[in-house]
Amino acid sequence: MTEPIILKGKPVADLNKKYCLQLIEENQLSPHLYVFLIGEDPASEYYVGNIKKQGKKLNIQVTIEKYNQISEDELCNKIIALNNDNDVHGIMVQKPLPKNINPAKIESLISPDKDVDGFHPLNTGLMLQEKECFLPCTAQAILETMDFYNINPNKKHIVVVGRSNVVGKPIANLLLYKAKNRSATVTICHSQTPELSVFTKQADVLITAVGVANLIKPEMIKNNVIILDAGMNEILTVDNKTTYTGDVNYELCFNKCFAITPVPGGIGSVTTSILFKNICNSAKMKKK
């Protein structure tokens, strides 16, 4: 068996960043992302801070409005005002949200043409109809990683572990697109699937986004499987330090794979670049 291919996210992300810089220069754009950060979640603060840092390098303005607490009505009023602000091209409400705010209500309120996260019901409907729209960033990141490394889903059995509206459901639907000849056979599982390994062992391509650290072990996969791990789980090491791992036990599964994404350094790094690409495309559409 040959050495497995490590599907690194950096070269994919670099292409997207180059696209953003070129689009901004050629169209004289001033893309502006507005982010709401509510509550005290260290992982969210790190992620949003990283978006601001990377945005600066790409000449994308990122405004972060942070609250320890805010009422749902007040947040809704702020979003409505931003929907009508022509200088704002993307609106993002970072999750998790406090219990007093209904995520579905917030997602539906953001204008579809500023919904750079791709969660608005209109964008979801357009995605199901295989029409142009903003797609959820992680699902799009998985597709672009597959394209970059010439992983053709056509006629493959792809098993998706995870059923969220953020990753699992969107990527399953995108892999079925007739128009782009993806035409995979897709099985969706999740953390409550009985005898999960019965399904994961059938996968030609295994996509995980379930949020359970090291859930997938070597006895759950077949030889020469391709794994795209979109999980990002915080764990403590034996010396009580924080580290991150995916849904797949990378070290133990590595030698059974034909190709595998690392965590970190895989799908996650591509996801942020997709967000920037969506913002730039929104700014271009607004200028037209």
Task: Name its key features.
288 residues; 10 helices; 2 domains; 18% strand; six-stranded parallel sheet; alpha/beta; three-stranded parallel sheet; Rossmann fold
How would you explain this protein's 3D organization?
By secondary structure, the protein is α/β, with parallel strands linked by helices. The protein folds into two domains: 29-111, 3-Layer(aba) Sandwich (Rossmann fold); 135-269, Rossmann fold, CATH 3.40.50. It has helices spanning 10-27, 42-57, 72-83, 103-109, 121-128, 137-148, 168-174, 196-200, 250-253, 267-287, and strands at 5-6, 32-38, 61-67, 90-93, 157-161, 185-189, 205-208, 225-229, 233-236, 242-245, 257-260. The strands form three sheets. Strands 1-11-8-7-5-6 form a six-stranded parallel beta sheet. Helix 6 (137-148) packs across helix 10 (267-287). The longest helix has 21 residues, at 267-287. The relative contact order is 0.17.
Number of helices: 10
Briefly, what CATH class of the largest domain? Alpha Beta
Question: How are strands sequenced across the largest beta sheet?
Answer: 1-11-8-7-5-6
Number of strands: 11
Q: Tell me the series of helices and strands, N- to C-terminal.
A: EHEHEHEHHHEHEHEEEEHEH
Structural class: alpha/beta
Q: What fraction of residues sit in β-strands?
A: 15-25%
What's the CATH H-level superfamily name of the largest domain? Answer: NAD(P)-binding Rossmann-like Domain
- Which overall shape is indicated by the principal axes computed on the Cα atoms? globular
**Biggest β-sheet strands, sense, barrel:** 6 strands, parallel
As a percent range, the share of helical residues equals 25-40%
Oligomer category? single chain
